[in-house]
């Protein structure tokens, strides 16, 4: 089976798209080459790293990258995970399927204290459900 190239896109490429990349790569790296990028990349949020570590997934080596890096790459799936990215995302000329998931932004500060983590857990959990639905749908 050929691996499918899949990219997750959000605005800052610091939370949602990074978590989604980590989740899909962890569970389905045999099926997908997984990337993430942002329309206005910033940096990987430490709370994103923390909530993924709770599930035994290490995303600490991820970098916040720009969409431009991937625009000319063939992508089987281009998945936007925030409404702003959907509106501002350029068209991927080599993108086969465009999918949008409206996921609430967990960002409220750059904090990484235990009291900061709950919105990131909710985001992780919601993305995990979306990824499971995505896998179920493409296997049909």
Verbal overview:
The structure is a single chain. This protein has a single domain, classed as Response regulator (Rossmann fold, 3-Layer(aba) Sandwich), CATH 3.40.50. Helices cover 34% and strands 19% of the residues. The protein has helices at 16-28, 46-53, 83-88, 118-138, and strands at 4-10, 32-38, 75-80, 95-100. Strands 2-1-3-4 form a four-stranded parallel beta sheet. It is globular and about 40 Å long. The mean pLDDT is 91.
Q: What's the CATH topology label?
A: Rossmann fold
**Separation of termini?**
15 Å
Low-confidence stretches: none
CATH architecture call: 3-Layer(aba) Sandwich
CATH homologous superfamily classification: Response regulator
Report the total helices: 4
Shape: globular
- Helix/strand structural class: alpha/beta
Order of helices and strands: EHEHEHEH
Proportion of residues in helical segments: 25-40%
Beta content? 15-25%
Strand order of the largest sheet: 2-1-3-4
Structure characteristics:
single chain, 140 residues, alpha/beta, Rossmann fold, four-stranded parallel sheet, 4 helices, 4 strands
Structure summary:
This protein is α/β, with parallel strands linked by helices and 140 residues long.
Could you give the topology of this structure?
Blueprint: E1 4-10, H1 16-28, E2 32-38, H2 46-53, E3 75-80, H3 83-88, E4 95-100, H4 118-138
Parallel strand pairs: 1-2, 1-3, 3-4
């Amino acid at each position: 089976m050929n691996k499918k190239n899949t990219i997750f896109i959000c605005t800052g490429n610091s939370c949602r798209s990074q978590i989604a990349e980590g989740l899909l790569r962890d569970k389905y790296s045999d099926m997908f080459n997984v990337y993430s990028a942002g329309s206005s990349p910033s940096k990987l949020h430490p709370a994103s790293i923390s909530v993924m570590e709770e599930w035994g997934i290490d995303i600490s080596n991820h970098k916040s990258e720009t969409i431009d890096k991937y625009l000319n790459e063939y992508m089987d799936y281009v998945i936007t995970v925030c409404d702003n990215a959907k509106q501002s995302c350029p068209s991927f000329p080599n993108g086969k399927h465009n999918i949008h998931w409206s996921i609430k932004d967990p960002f409220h500060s750059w904090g990484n204290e235990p009291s900061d983590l709950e919105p990131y857990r909710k985001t992780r959990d919601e993305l995990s459900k979306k990824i499971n639905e995505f896998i179920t749908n493409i296997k049909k």
